[in-house]
Amino acid sequence: MLVTKNMCNLIKDSNFVLREYEEKKKELNAKLVCYVEENIFPRYKRYYGHGLTHIKDVINKCLLLGEYYSLDKNMCYVMAAYHDIGLNVDCDNHEKESGKILFSDANLKTYFDEEQIQIMKEAVEDHRGSRKERPRNFYGEVLSDSDRDFDVALLARRQLGVSLKNYPSLKTFEEHFERSYNYILENKNHISLWTNNEILNKRLEQFKKEFLDKEFARSVYKKEYEKIFREGIVDKILHYYEDF
Ligand SMILES: [Fe+2]
Ligand SMILES: [Fe+2]
Hints:
Blueprint: H1 5-10, H2 14-24, H3 30-39, H4 52-68, H5 73-82, H6 94-103, H7 114-125, H8 138-146, H9 152-166, H10 173-187, H11 198-212, H12 214-230, H13 233-239
């Protein structure tokens, strides 16, 4: 299956995520959003795979699940916005560092009480997908599930970034695609969702179906690859971003 013009509208890529975020944030506390956008988002500037596309994608999914389960949407927003912020302190233990930053942010105390801050801190600390133990609270389950890639285009974007930076011996699109594709093929069946949410499960099934159609996946990866070169993103991947 090749990517046609009509299908491009259906593919959830970076632009789709950013537009969806702009819509969803209208339902939140405007002052809180302003604080996060001015003070927290700039701290993701040096990240590509964990940059604002990823953060806003996780926010969008947390808000979706938050609505489904009637959770506090401002809490969903904050935990997602802070969840990877500790990467620039200690990459391997970034969940703990992100939790510390959230917990010690005095400004958040004007919006949330102590119990809410504790819940968000634990959720952030427990978000890593490879973690074997169930997150300590339900917000943690929501955050961990939202941190997964459910879209081929977003996965392609992240994987190609890693590939271009860490595998300089690979020279062509085909080589980068084959490495990335096989890596996911070996790991795709290990994804399970703590919430077992029906909407996310459907998206996961759809993702697996699309990904297994290798020609389709190749078309999507190719489009992302061309964008990385056309827009000069490759120079930033090699010399500026810090998250690989
Ligand atoms: Fe993370
Ligand atoms: Fe993340």
